[in-house]
Amino acid sequence: MDVLVHCSMSSLGWVCGGAQTVISALVNVVTPDGTIVMPAFTTWNTDPANWQDPPVPAEWHQSIREEMAPYIPQISPSRGVGRVAELFRSLPGVKRSMHPIVSVCAWGRLAHEITREHPLDCQFGERSPLGRLYELDGQVLSLGVRTNSTLHLSEHIGRWQGKRMQREGCSMLIDGQRRWVEFEDLASNDSDFIAIKDEFERDTEHTLYGRVGSADSRLVRVRAMVDYGAWWMEQHRNSGNSDMEQEAAG
Questions:
Q1: Whose CB has fewer CB within 10 Å in the chain, the N or C terminal residue?
Q2: Structural domains counted in the chain
Q3: Cα(113)–Cα(91) distance, rounded to whole angstroms?
Q4: What residue numbers bound the domain in which 11 lies?
Q5: Which pLDDT tens digit goes with each residue over 98-112?
């Protein structure tokens, strides 16, 4: 079993031992013969010109680029991925991909294979860890979480109107020196991801439902979710009815 885990501790309710107990339970179920994968995003390490929540004054941009701490996989803290994923990245035997913005961590049989390559200009595409989980036909376990990050891969695979590249930047170490590096990748928008997930569950029989603690939980195949997501985007993002297109028009 190779599984990408999204977990909300607050949705689980009180757990004796907290995040450590949750991780131990996952390890016991998956075993070293499988692989546990979790996001370890460092979205604080991005170009301030793209910040929206909140934005920062334009006159700050260059100073932020010059002073931003570089991504160091052994120590850089994750952001916005929850307590379980943040603890998981620090555990012995866990591998972390080298992407300075959207790294993932993995433990188990295929941890090295999943994390070994993560090109700067392929955050969520076919050459990313998500792409390898797709090739492996891994699974996604959502514990009290409504979103599903594999739909970012759907954005790359699907043929929908309005696709565009976005310039991004980050701080990273090159030959031991901190450098600000810029690159281009597909501009992503997750505003319709919950709608896609909800319709996937309604239209298909690929979702296994359960309850862990107080949390509604779901298990789906990566390939089934990604393929459906790509199809959905081709139908809705091309129609002018998606949230993303309405945002762009407004």
A1: C
A2: 1
A3: 18
A4: 2-249
A5: 999 999 999 999 999
